[in-house]
Amino acid sequence: MFDEMIGNAEEFCQKLGIPYRVVSIVSGALNNAAAKKHDLEAWFPASGAFRELVSCSNCLDYQSRRLLIRYGQTKKMNAQTEYVHMLNATMCAVTRVICAILENHQTETGVVVPEALRPFMPPAFREPIPFVKPAPVDEAETKKQRKHREGMEKKDEPASKEQ
């Protein structure tokens, strides 16, 4: 069932045309609840990086012990009861999915709506949605943007300069 859950998330991304990868999280990075965890990461071209969209965890009986969710014989029957094992998955982190769609379906003139979403869009937006104003590439750099850029440039400099 765990594989089916991550498979559903993969199918979701495929239908939306979002490039993705599935990453198995190493045991040292897991929290106390998860015994196994896979993340589905989408490609974000603007930052040139994969970012998490979906997280799928097998928590074994960690959560059910705290919630007292059991199955089997009742205590009155003097038999041992077992705790259920629980799975957890995020199917759609809406804001991140929208960002992934916009970045991956962007063209020079606007955004192409993924085929799977077109039936749910108003007729005027089933075709590429045009940008309403030009990209801010020609705008003057703000003080905050300059400070960020300078910080990134310093970060990229070698730690020690050889003479």
Notes on the structure:
This protein has 163 residues and is of the alpha+beta class. It has a single domain, classed as Bira Bifunctional Protein, Domain 2 (BirA Bifunctional Protein, domain 2, 2-Layer Sandwich), CATH 3.30.930.10. The protein has helices at 2-16, 62-67, 94-104, 143-156, and strands at residues 20-24, 36-44, 49-58, 70-72, 81-83, 87-89, 110-111, 129-130. The strands form 3 sheets. The chain has a 4-stranded antiparallel sheet with strand order 1-2-3-6, covered by helices on one side. The chain has a two-stranded antiparallel sheet with strand order 4-5. Strand 4 and strand 5 form a beta hairpin. The longest helix has 15 residues, at 2-16.
Give me the secondary-structure topology.
Layout: H1 2-16, E1 20-24, E2 36-44, E3 49-58, H2 62-67, E4 70-72, E5 81-83, E6 87-89, H3 94-104, E7 110-111, E8 129-130, H4 143-156
Antiparallel strand pairs: 1-2, 2-3, 3-6, 4-5, 7-8
Summarize the structure.
This protein has 163 residues and is an alpha+beta fold. 28% of the residues lie in helices and 23% in strands.
CATH architecture: 2-Layer Sandwich
| Helix run count | 4
Question: What is the CATH class?
Answer: Alpha Beta
Structural domain count? 1
Q: Biggest sheet: strands side by side, in what order? A: 1-2-3-6
What portion of residues is helical? 25-40%
Kindly name the structural category: alpha+beta
EC number: 6.1.1.11
Keywords: Aminoacyl-tRNA synthetase, ATP-binding, Ligase, Nucleotide-binding
Family: Belongs to the class-II aminoacyl-tRNA synthetase family. Type-1 seryl-tRNA synthetase subfamily.
Pfam families: tRNA-synt_2b (PF00587)
